[in-house]
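Next up, sample data:
>
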Amino acid sequence: MIFLIKKQKMSKLNQTKIPLILSEDNVLKIVIDQGVIETEHRWKLVRERDGLTKRSADVMWLEFDEAGKFKSKHSQPGIGRSLIMSPFNDFFTWQTTGVTEILACTPDCEYVKFKTTNSTYELSKE
């Protein structure tokens, strides 16, 4: 008997990634207990041009030097800063390019509309 499997193309941006570790006894385990998979989302980021939506528990704004190396982290947006969405490790949810313009921002920064080098985003607290 022959089975045909239809291969679907999936955007690399929208793939669900499940981080695993290989234990000492050669068993693959899901890395939930190390904070890699978030179960609570308080922030929502929407890219204007295609509606791509990302959610995370926390956000941080990163600043880089002229050589592109990490300089400092911030709790508020600023020109040149890059938004990163938690978890803050190798499995972060999303990172934008540097902010080129802040279009709108509430005083508490719980809503920010901003432009980056290649996109326009809306970040809001849920």
Observations:
- The mean pLDDT is 82.
- The longest strand covers residues 99-105.
